Amino acid sequence: MITYTGGCHCGRVRFEVIAPRDLRVTDCDCSICSMSGYLHLTVPKSDFRLLSGVQVLTTYQFNTHTARHLFCSVCGIKSFYVPRSHPDGYSVNARCLDEGSVEQMTVVPVDGKNWEKTHLAAKP
Ligand SMILES: [Zn+2]
User: Fold this and answer.
1) What percent of the chain lies above the pLDDT cut of 90?
2) Residue 74 C-alpha to ligand 1 middle, in angstroms?
């Protein structure tokens, strides 16, 4: 496990996240992720620390209002958020990790378009 740093485009939002050296991220095809090209690195809350930018974060919610889509109100980049699939964790946008810090990354496609069917059906 190593500590990565990252943030939004304008640099107001900065965070650090603890994750494996060989990153496994998911590429979701749901309505919002496909539009923004978001790559999910999902971590428990304890492995994420917001360093700055809490005052510029804006929340966008839709559908079930479980996910809290947090984006920078200055540059518009969603560098992390609280996902519907893991409401007690964070999803970090792997595209927003600092350049040069990522050594290995495997991208796994996820069927977010049919989230209700696939994700909920998998739960006991
Ligand atoms: Zn920003």
Assistant:
1) 70
2) 5
pTM of the model: 0.88
How far is residue 72's CA from residue 77's CA, in Å, rounded to a whole number? 6
For the chain, the average pLDDT equals: 91
Distance between start and end Cα atoms, the chain: 30
Task: Tell me how far the alpha carbon of residue 124 lies from the centroid of ligand 1, in angstroms.
Answer: 39
Q: Tell me how far apart the alpha carbons of residues 70 and 72 are, in angstroms, rounded to a whole number.
A: 7
- What does the pLDDT read at residue 112? 78
- Transcribe 41-68 into DSSP letters: EEEEGGGEEEEE-GGGEEEE--TTS-SB
Give every CB contact of residue 124 below 8 A, 6+ residues apart in sequence. Answer: none
